Amino acid sequence: MHHANHYYGHSHVLARWCGLDDRDPPRIHGYLQHGWNIGDGLAADHGFVAGTPVFLWSERTRRRAWSVGRRETYVVGSPWAYLLEMEPAPAAERREGTIWYPFHGWEGQHVMGDHARLIAQIKRTEPGPVTICLYWQEYQSARLRRQYERAGFRVICHGYRGGWWENLDPEFLHRQLEEQRRHRRVASNRLCSAVLYGALAGCEPAVYGDPMQLEGEKPFFGGQARIRRQWAELHGEQVDPVLAREIAAEELGVDQLVPPAELRRLFRWPNPFQQPYPDDVELLKEVLR
């Protein structure tokens, strides 16, 4: 099924939840939402076959999908929420500094913005050491990496998201969780999956700075104006962490996690605990006894 189901190791995390081999997850029969968005859960640039099951992170997203005509939709929660359930935080965590995610482009669109101005604002705002996490596309730019490094920031990349069933990275979310649990704050210049992930993982979130633009960006479902209006309480240099965690839990479907047996049924995945059926000859012998 759709190759985006494997982005960021999502299918690998869900295969582990279902008791299957997370090194080689089966293909999901349907389309799995692969990032937080303000629309119907589907990526605007992806082709979609009508009638294909859609697996969404939250009830709010399901209602939006229903409003635009998506009918075979199922709320299953986000892979991030499953990972946190399987990897609880250690009893004693030592956190310091901020992990900062600059808004990024993708293979089809590059991001345009003033990184120098953003760096200056980060330095004015963040009280402790800063880790800049770049998307793999921006991380490949030595010029951009050095720009952040010269500012005194540690620069990392969580990895490659995978694509078209190649270069899959089962450890992507694991690395992201490990990094976020090292930091006290998580921030970005746009409200995004990473900020919600961090809020759920125990970081104090913030969204501030020039939101930048994608080449030819179109304001699908209301764009940034709607995001800043609807989730105003998550924007600013200081955000209420308790309220942010409540919102993140709803958006990431923490209360929507599906038991392994049910998730296997929805995805049409095999049951690893089911005894294999006897072959036809043995079955016939049993019937004739």
General description of the model:
With 289 residues, the protein is an alpha/beta fold. It folds into 2 domains: 3-86 and 252-267, no CATH class; 98-251, 3-Layer(aba) Sandwich (Rossmann fold), CATH 3.40.50. It has helices spanning 10-17, 59-67, 79-86, 115-125, 136-139, 142-150, 172-180, 193-200, 223-230, 241-251, 260-267, 280-288; strands at 31-32, 54-56, 73-75, 98-101, 111-112, 130-133, 154-156, 185-188, 204-207, 213-214. Helix 8 links the parallel strand 8 (185-188) and strand 9 (204-207). Helix 1 packs across helix 3 and helix 8 packs across helix 10. The protein starts with 9 loop residues before the first helix and ends with a helix.
Itemize the secondary structure elements and their pairings.
Layout: H1 10-17, E1 31-32, E2 54-56, H2 59-67, E3 73-75, H3 79-86, E4 98-101, E5 111-112, H4 115-125, E6 130-133, H5 136-139, H6 142-150, E7 154-156, H7 172-180, E8 185-188, H8 193-200, E9 204-207, E10 213-214, H9 223-230, H10 241-251, H11 260-267, H12 280-288
Parallel strand pairs: 1-2, 2-3, 4-6, 4-8, 6-7, 8-9
Antiparallel strand pairs: 5-10
Helix pairs in contact: 1-3, 8-10
Provide the descriptors you would attach to this structure in a database record.
Rossmann fold; alpha/beta; 289 residues; 5-stranded parallel β-sheet; 2 domains; 3-stranded parallel β-sheet; 10 strands
Can you summarize this structure?
The protein has 289 residues and is of the alpha/beta class. It has 2 domains: 3-86 and 252-267, no CATH class; 98-251, Rossmann fold.
